[in-house]
Design a protein that fits this description.
heterotrimer, A alpha/beta, B mainly alpha, C mainly alpha, A: Rossmann fold, globular, B: MetI-like fold
């Protein structure tokens, strides 16, 4: 069916507990191909855990997650194959410190996807040029600024040709002047038609990039609206309160 | 100190032979010890049930007993239950048994020092467990462990000096022999010290250079 | 039925003799540890001096002691010095001397390392609070140094106990030697005695060192 072909990610009734704490309490979420969804919510609401579940880094207790029709089961053999379809960028710089930038990017395409070295290099070059870091290809991660590292991390994930990209507060650990360069890369990516699920606290960016906003609170999705509607006219009080915390008024 | 140079020239070849034995035992013993360390630290890192407990017990046993006693047990004790090993084999096994636990501890703390996020980002790029260990975790852990490994190597070379206790004709044995036979104590001891310096100084210098290069060219955080 | 070898351990006073033999090595190492503690603290302070001669001297001493196998040092003290100076040291005195020289070097380096590991801002903030030099050391620096120092010092103790096993090679009658005597005496009655006796020596050493290692590990964890 045409409708099912359009679905990239489908989460149904997802529940996750850490001991007694309920982190995710029945999450349903569907993302279509090419759609950009931004997930908002105060810290501790379960956003990061949800991303980690999608990527198979975290197991869950109930419900199901499907990527392009294939079911995610954490720790399963199929997961190494599935996680190639999912690109993820973390909050902390997770580059491999013992490899230079180019190796960081080509390692997985060559070793995991068994692509030819030249092929991986060519794609890495094209991507690095796009984010303006080609001249840094021989540098080691520690020689790069935080913003540069995050751009490389994005390129590294892209070089696997993923079908969906997950971003977990990728600018939260950055100095303010470096946030922009990373967000610009993401914005360009979104305009290029990539399916994206983004967790961020940058409201201006969320408004600019998102097709849809998902508002998560205490492990539940409270709002799932087009971006403009959410920002102008959120339907729940929790979301209104949340948005209020980003506004400053002089009393 | 008036040294009898004729005596030194006459008996220097004995020291060369003995030094060869010392180096031979140290080389193979340390290589084995390193292999033991890699396997055991990996098992500890992955928290393999049961095996992990056995390795922990081995590490405690090995680190809390002297090599000389370990060698006596191997060389004089084991033949009673039908395990007869040559002196050289005992020495190498002894060094591997002792050094294995030191290498295990060094490598384990190296492995544990690598941030969890490294494993996760590898997983998110589709690396399986083996590839993650081989390409991401192990190389980083090795780099962190280099100073510890170097210290272990020097420690183990020094420890080989006790193999004379099980009648192997190493440097100590030759020196003691010459003292006992000819009373040329000064000459015998001088040659002994020089022999060990000639073995250990290059190793120690190489270790220093290696550590320095790793620190400068390295990727550390 | 042939006698099983393990009985040899409990024949007559054999076991007591083994423990006494172990005590010989433990006694030597404890004496050396005690002396090394005192001298090592002084040596550690000496190493922090800015004087270039003091630095060079302590450096050469530390490096030489460290790079030589302890057995070589023991031979030098026992065979070499006796002849060169005509002093007739007994083996036990030589052993205590060598292990003290070695322990002082190791302990000194630990002290130096611990002192150096206290960051400058600890001094700065103590001075900023109006403490004088004496108060700063007494209340701020020394307590922190001690915490860092104690676990490795305890580890040094087990290393010394283990290394003292070498004294059998300069003719001291300690646990291995006693074991050999027991084996020789019972050679015909208990042909498998060596397995059990050397096994027992192994266990005895383990029992002497393990609790000390556990203590060091515990303190390390608690004070991290």
């Amino acid at each position: 069916m045409a409708d099912e072909d359009r679905i990239m990610l489908e989460i149904a009734g997802l529940k996750k507990k850490f001991g007694e704490d309920v982190i995710l309490d029945g999450v349903d979420l569907t993302i279509n191909k090419g759609e950009v969804v931004v997930m908002l919510g105060s810290s501790g609401c379960g956003k990061s855990t949800l991303l980690r579940c999608i990527n198979g880094l975290e197991s869950f207790d109930e419900g199901s997650i499907r990527i392009d029709g294939e079911e995610i089961v954490s720790g399963s053999k199929a997961m190494t194959h599935l996680s190639q379809k999912i690109g993820m960028v973390f909050q902390s710089y997770d580059l491999f410190p013992h490899r230079n930038i180019l190796d960081n990017i080509t390692l997985a395409p060559v070793k995991v996807q068994r692509r030819a070295k030249e092929d991986a290099r060519a794609q890495a070059e094209q991507l690095l040029r796009r984010v303006g870091l080609w001249e840094k290809r021989k540098a080691y991660p520690r020689e790069l600024s935080g913003g540069q590292k995050q751009r490389v991390a994005i390129v590294r994930a892209l070089c696997m040709n993923p079908e969906i990209m997950l971003f977990d507060e990728v600018t939260a650990a950055l100095d303010p002047e470096m946030v922009r360069e990373v967000l610009d890369v993401m914005l360009e990516l979104a305009q290029g038609g990539m399916t994206m699920l983004i967790v961020t606290h940058e409201m201006g960016f969320a408004r600019a990039v998102a097709d849809r906003i998902v508002f998560l609170d205490e492990g539940k999705i409270l709002e799932n609206l087009p971006a403009e509607t959410f920002f102008n006219n959120p339907s729940t009080q929790r979301a209104k309160d949340f948005l209020q915390t980003f506004e400053f008024k002089k009393h | 100190m008036n040294l009898d140079w004729n005596f030194i020239i006459k008996y220097a070849p004995l020291y060369v032979e003995a030094a060869k034995l010392t180096v031979f035992i140290a080389f193979w013993g340390i290589l084995l010890a390193f292999a033991v360390g890699v396997l055991c630290s990996a098992a500890l890192y992955y928290k393999v049930p049961v095996l992990r407990r056995i390795i922990q017990a081995y590490v405690e046993l090995s680190r809390n007993t002297p090599l000389l006693v370990q060698l006596f047990f191997l060389y004089f004790g084991l033949p009673n239950i039908g395990i007869v090993l040559s002196g050289e084999a005992c020495a190498m096994i002894g060094i591997a048994f002792l050094g294995g636990s030191y290498m295990t501890e060094t490598l384990r703390s190296g492995l544990e020092s690598i941030d969890k996020i490294q494993e996760e980002s590898a997983a998110s790029l589709g690396f399986n467990k083996w590839l993650t260990m081989k390409e991401i975790i192990f190389p980083q852990a090795m780099a962190v462990s280099v100073p510890g490994i170097c210290a272990n190597v020097i420690f183990l070379i020094k420890e080989t000096s006790v193999v004379s206790g099980i009648a192997l004709a190493d440097l100590m044995y030759v020196a003691k022999d010459l003292i006992g036979l000819y009373y040329k104590t000064d000459e015998a001891l001088t040659m002994l010290v020089i022999s060990y310096l000639m073995i250990l100084l290059p190793v120690s210098a190489a270790a220093t250079i290696l550590e320095r290069r790793l620190r400068h060219a390295g990727f550390g955080n | 039925m042939r006698a099983s070898g393990i009985e040899v351990l409990f024949l007559g006073s054999n076991f007591a003799r083994l423990v006494e033999g172990l005590w010989v090595t433990v006694r030597i190492s404890l004496l050396a540890v005690l002396l090394s503690l005192l001298l090592g603290i002084l040596f550690g302070l000496f190493m922090t001096l800015q004087n270039p001669i003091a630095r060079a001297v302590s450096r050469v001493y530390l490096e030489f002691i460290r790079i030589m196998p302890q057995l070589v040092l023991l031979f030098i003290a026992y065979f070499g010095v006796t002849r060169a100076f005509g002093w007739n040291w007994d083996a036990e005195f030589s052993a205590v001397l060598v292990f003290t020289l070695w322990g002082t070097a190791e302990m000194g380096d630990l002290v130096r390392g611990a002192l150096k590991s206290i960051p400058q801002h600890q001094y700065d903030s103590a001075y900023a609070l109006g403490m004088n030099r004496r108060q700063t050391f007494l209340y701020i620096i020394i307590p922190q140094t001690l915490r860092r120092l104690l676990p490795p010092t305890i580890n040094l103790t087990t290393r010394m106990i283990k290394t003292t096993s070498l004294v059998v090679l300069i003719g001291i009658t300690e646990v291995l030697k006693v074991g050999k005597q027991i084996i020789d005496v019972n050679r015909f009655q208990y042909p498998t005695a060596s397995l059990w006796v050397y096994g027992a020596v192994f266990v005895l050493y383990f029992l002497a060192c393990w609790p000390i290692s556990l203590l060091a590990k515990y303190l390390e964890k608690r004070w991290r």
